[in-house]
Design goal:
Distance between the termini: 23 Å
Order of helices and strands: EHEHEEHEEEH
Strand content: 25-35%
Radius of gyration: 14 Å
Largest sheet: 7 strands, mixed
Shape: globular
Number of domains: 1
Mean pLDDT: 92
CATH architecture: 3-Layer(aba) Sandwich
Strand order of the largest sheet: 1-7-6-2-5-4-3
CATH class: Alpha Beta
Structural class: alpha/beta
CATH superfamily: P-loop containing nucleotide triphosphate hydrolases
CATH topology: Rossmann fold
Number of helices: 4
Low-confidence stretches: none
Oligomer: single chain
Number of strands: 7
Length: 154
Amino acid sequence: MQEIWSFYSAGEADTVNLGRALAQVSVKGDIYALFGTLGMGKSVLSRAFVQYFQGEVDVPSPTFTLLQTYEAPDFDIYHFDLYRLKSPDEIFELGMEEAMYNGVCLIEWPEKMGAYLPKRAITVKITPEGSGRRFAFFAEGAAAERLLSLKDKL
């Protein structure tokens, strides 16, 4: 899968704007695989995504609970943090299969899923760049087209 677009975030406000923009173009069945080391902005992006629909509610990182769910008008949002998984098979205990088809998934530490990460997932690779972060997006088909529509909005 090729990179289709990247976004430079100079700080948290830019990452919040990106998260809100992603929420606006997301549809039921989207899976965002958020790759990046500690402190790269995965939780900030996810929080902004959820708050676009929920308002300024508290959106804790699901580091200890592994999953938080939220309602949006057209789908449920499943925010996974897989950092503490010991085996990829543990995703089935979290109900991830159902979540991937019935809602939008935001998955922090998707590498913990191993081969269970669907090929249709929208990959977001977050890396440090200068004093900010680079968010590189990899997707195909309709998801790629929706993401490309963000270029002119941010």
